[in-house]
Each structure stands twice: as C-alpha cells, then as structure tokens.
Amino acid sequence: MLKPMTISAIHAAYRSGELTPHKLLHRCLQHAQADERNVWICLLSVEQLDGYLHQLEYHSPDDLPLFGIPFAIKDNIDLADLPTTAACPDYAYQPLESAFVVKQLIAAGAIPLGKTNLDQFATGLVGVRSPFGACQNSVDPAYISGGSSSGSAVAVATGQVCFALGTDTAGSGRVPAAFNNILGLKGTKGRISCSGVVPACKSLDCVTLFAQCATDLATVWPIAAQFDAQDPFAREAVAATPIPVAFRFGVPAKTQLQFFGDSEAERLYWQALDTLEALGGTVVEIDLEPFLQAARLLYDGPWVAERLAAIKEFFHSDASRCLPVIQTIIGGAETRTAVDAYEALYELQRLKRLADAELAKVDLIVTPTTGTIYTIQEVEADPIRLNSNLGYYTNFMNLLDYSAIALPCGFRSAGDKVDLPFGITLFAPAFQDEVLLALGDRWQRQVALPLGVSHQLLPANTPSLPMPVADTIDVLVCGAHLSGLPLNWQLTDRKAFLKQVTSTAKAYRMYALAGGPPYRPGLIRDTDQGVAIAVEVWSVPAEHFGSFVAGIPAPLGIGKVELADGTWVSGFICEPCGLKGAEEISELGGWRNYIATR
Questions:
Q1: pLDDT tens-digit series, residues 338-351
Q2: What pLDDT, on the 0 to 100 scale, is given for residue 518?
C-alpha cells in the first residue's frame, strides 16, 4: 500500500504516473478483503468498484478535490450499493440512495470501499458490541478499538482507506481516534447532514471524519459539510472566531481529572499540556463540574429514549434481535416520561449556561479523549461500567453543542508489552471547526508522531493549514480594562485577545478620575509635560467593536494614541472636562502602579 496514505501523497502518485486510481483502489480492496480485525461488515464487489472508477474518466485531481481517494463508511450511513445493517442483521435494509454526505464525497471524486463495523445501533464506545465480531485495536488486537465507529477508525489507522465516515453522539467519533493514533473531527452539530443516517439520538447525532492528518480532514470537511435543506437539524456555516497566536486553553482542576488508575495516560496528558504551551498557549484552570453534570444526563436522563424512538417498531416487535447489552440500555428508556424529558431539558439549559461561562474564559478547553483503555476481555466482562468510564470526557459534547477534534498524543510506555496510543481532545464553541483543524495541524507537526500504524511521519512538504483570519480592530486600554482588572471581561466576552503589552510615547498624562467603582483613569495628551504610560493593546473582532465602544461612559471615549514605537492606535482618551476633581498620577507610570499604592 502507498505510504503515507494521505490525499496529497495519493494525488502526487497519480500525477507522477506511479499509481492510477484503478491500481490503488483494487489494492485497497484486496487489503480490506484480507483484514483480520473485524473492520468490515460489507465490501464492494470488484464490479461495483469498477463502476465508481469509470465515473472518474476524463477527470483528474485538478478538477475533483477527492479524485480517486478511497474512503470507508460506517454501517449506519447509507450507501446505495450495499445494505445498511447498523450492526444488527435482522434490522438490515437496502437503501434506494446514498446518504447526503456520501453523495457529496462521491461527487468530489472519492470512492467508497465498503461499510465498516460498529457497536450495534451506534450504542457504545468500545467496538465490541457487534454480531460481526469485536473490532480489534490497530496496534494490539487484544485491546478494544473504541466505538461506536470502530471499523472506520481502524480502516484509516491501518491504511486500508485514506479517510472514513463515523458518527458521534457520545464520543463515537473521538474515542476510536484516540485508541488508534489518528485524528477524529466531531464538527459542529448539524454542519454535516444526517440524512440517510440511522439515528441514535436524532437531536444530538453528528457525522464525523477520521484521517491520519489534519490536512486531509481540512480537505474533506468543506465537501462533507454542505447544507442539506432536507435535514431538519442541518445548520448553515458561521464564520469561525480565530484564536490568537498567544492563545488560552482551559484545563480541568486536578481533582476533576480521571485516569482510572492509568498512570501512563496521566503522564501523557501533562506532557501534552507542555506541548500546547510550546505552541504559544497559556494554561487557565476551569471548572469541569457543569460539563460532567451535563454528561450524566445522556444515559442517566431521558435522552436514552431517543435511542428507543429511533428503532421503536423494530425493538418492540422483538427486542431479542438486539444484543443483550443493547436491550438493557435501550430498554431502560421504557420507564422515562415526558415530565422527565422536560425536567432534563431545563437542567441541561442551566448547565449549559454554567459550562459556556467556563469556556468563555479561554479560547478552547483540553481534556484527555479518554482516561484509559481496556482489553476486549475486560470490556466483555464488565460492559456497562467500563463503557461509562470511557465517556467521562466525551458524553457532554453534543448536549452542550460544542465542536471538537481528537488528536494523537503519544504512546504509553508498556515495558515489554505493546505501547498503546493515547489522545487528547480540543473543544471549543460551535462553528470553531476550521480553527480546531488549524490548531490540530500545528499540534501534529509539533509532536511528529507516526501516521496511524504506518511508522511514516507526515511529509515535510505537506502544506500547513492557515489559521482563519478575523477582521479585528486594535484598541489601546490603560485602566480597568487591563488584563485581570474589573472591566477586562468586556473585552474577553467579545473574544478580543491581548496583542501587545507596551507603553505610550512620552507625551501623555494620566489622572485618577473622580467617582467609582469601578475606578477609572483618564489619559490626556501633553507633548510638553507628558510621560510614557504603561498600556495594553487588544484586538477586538470588528463585529463586536461597536457594542464595546457604545458601553464607554463619558468623559471617556476612543481616539488615537501614540505608542512608544511611534505608531498610532485607537485607544481610550479622556475629555478635558473629566479632569474636574481628578488626581494626577502620571509620575506612577500607569494604572497598575496606582492601584498598588491604594
């Protein structure tokens, strides 16, 4: 097989004549047919594959962005050529057309190879709840591959395909990525259509993407994330808010972290935080409790009733056709009432307010994707409790409507045993998908891990992903809006970020104005008696600049202020009438020094 199995490498091989789509795809099919890890439920026939290859005639990578790129489809997502089983043979049906997202990918030149194994009805994070066999970890077959999108992740990790579709309700698009040393993008809910997807929880489900590198995810994402007017949960794209080079990332308090006795996972997590700091990040401790409380609602609350609603007639006619563990989980919905549902909705709304407030303190939050990993034997002996442990950091994500990316982080040191992968997850508000992809690309280049199980590194000539650029306006602040002071929230709530700590030219006088709290300074330009005053320059998104300025009370306003290097920026100035009753504090050199004297 081609190594590395990335879009850019495949297209380079096509352009050079080293490979043709026919040669590569037939090799991929042979590779998949020889798979022994229970990755596939059903593969295309040679004739069906050739039908897709025929559609590529008269095309090239120059006009089709996914020209000749092999991909896999989780078997709860429709492909017109193959039955959809959701890992339940008695439920299987033959779709008349492919899912909306599958059609978008095929139209862009991608070629499906087949349907991959999953936890039955996408209910589980383990990858062993399938009558088609437990999908084995790509690194060590004794261990779980993660679920429910197990086969999709292992197909990517082992290079059988370039990328794969999964789904995610409680972590199914992230946990398998962490366990197989690949990336998993759980984009904003509703951005990839769920038309043609067997629902788990219809109001929460996301179609997800797996790949070996962030650049491949970034190529597939805009093609997959097309608006589908037929999907009632579909959402139009919203521009991302870029993060600054010096970004802030939230980490839970140590007492809120759970590694379930896995000391190697804990070591790798703290090591990951050091890496993020090396990328320009600053650690900010956040309270994970509202996120954890929201997570408990997913299975302990009425949302499990959505799983029953998805297969109600099938389940009620003969529940024994489902695996016993699935019967237990979905059957538990029978006791839920409408009153339970509304009470849980009210509680979720309360928790989202608290969780959003924590997320607003930072640009993103970083958690382990999972706190540990288990063997297949361990999970089969204790299926519900261990599955619940794996969802500790994942179950809240769709309930709270966040975007997330799972990143490979390193390998546990297992002595004489196989070293198993560990991963982290970065998450941010909805519609931050492109930002997370760009940061994921920077992360991947920094840690320089092998791609999946290939032992190949990301080629140095792989183009890097640019960080989305926002339209911002620089604003100089000199008083209560400085970092850590009482009015700084008026900047951070508007997603402004600190650009520069500096001083004015030696041409300003500062006064402590009368009144307060909050106590405020006034900056006056005086080229004859002025001094340099310590200030900060913040970049404010242009869309929020008007509301920020509208909140500035007289006698303050925004004018032009000269910095020490001679440049001029918009910043706080004071009308002369505001100096009545004010105390001059110019000799102290800045507002922080004045506060220290009080």
A1: 999 999 999 999 99
A2: 84
Q: For 396-426, give one letter per residue: b (16+ CB within 10 A) or e.
A: bbbbbbbbbbbbbbbbbeeeeeeebbbbbbb
Spatial separation of the C-alpha atoms in residues 342 and 490, rounded to whole Å? 34
Rounded to 10°, the helix 7-16/21-33 angle is 130
Peptide bond before 4: cis, by omega within 30 degrees of 0? yes
Please state, rounded to an integer, the average pLDDT across all residues of the chain: 95
Query: pLDDT exceeding 90 applies to what percent of the chain?
Result: 89
CATH fold for domain 472-597: Hypothetical upf0131 protein ytfp (3.10.490)
- What are the strands of the beta sheet with 472-477, ordered from one edge? 497-503, 534-541, 472-477, 568-574, 556-562
Q: What is the DSSP string of 403-440?
A: EEEEEEEEE---TTSPPPEEEEEEEEETT-HHHHHHHH
**Strand, helix or coil at 248?**
strand
Q: Among residues 468, 489, 494, which one has the least CA distance to residue 547? A: 494
H-helix segments, 486-590:
489-492, 542-550
Residue numbers annotated as active site? 74, 148, 172
Are 127 and 134 within 8 A, CB to CB?
Answer: yes
Q: What is the pLDDT at residue 524? A: 95
Alpha carbons 302 and 146: distance in angstroms, whole number: 25
Any idea which residue has 């440049």 for tokens? 567
Range name among 119-133, 181-195, 391-405, 413-427 with the lowest pLDDT average: 413-427
Measured distance CA(251)–CA(281) in Å, rounded: 12
Q: Is 57 helix (H, G, I), strand (E, B) or coil?
A: coil
pTM of the predicted model, to two decimals? 0.83
Q: Where are the domains of the chain?
A: 7-447, 472-597
Tokens of 200: 């788990």
Burial per residue of 157-170, b for 16 or more beta-carbon CB atoms within 10 angstroms, e otherwise: bbbbbbbbbbbbbb
Mapping DSSP to helix (H, G, I), strand (E, B) and coil, where does residue 12 land?
Answer: helix
Quickly tell me which residue has 């788990």 as its tokens. 200
Cβ distance 510 to 522 under 8 Å? yes
pLDDT category at 417 given cuts 50, 70, 90 is low
CB distance 238 to 225 below 8 Å? no
- Tens digit of each residue's pLDDT (9 = 90 or more) over 289-310: 999 999 999 988 889 999 999 9
**Which of 134, 176, 180 is CA-nearest to residue 157?**
180
The order of strands in the sheet holding 163-168 is: 40-43, 111-116, 70-74, 163-168, 206-211, 183-186, 402-411, 421-429, 364-368, 248-252, 282-286
Q: Which tokens sit at 485?
A: 């002071």
Domain 7-447: CATH superfamily, name plus number: Amidase signature (AS) domain (3.90.1300.10)
Task: Mark 275-298 as b/e (b = at least 16 C-beta within 10 Å).
Answer: ebeeeebeeeebbbbbbbbbbebb
Cβ proximity of 425 and 406 under 8 Å? yes
Dist. CA 179–CA 372, nearest whole Å = 9
Q: pLDDT-derived band of residue 153, with 50, 70 and 90 as boundaries? A: very high
* Mean pLDDT on 410-426: 88
Phi and psi angles of residue 105, each rounded to the nearest 5 degrees, phi first: -70, -45
Is the separation of the CB atoms in 206 and 170 below 8 Å? no
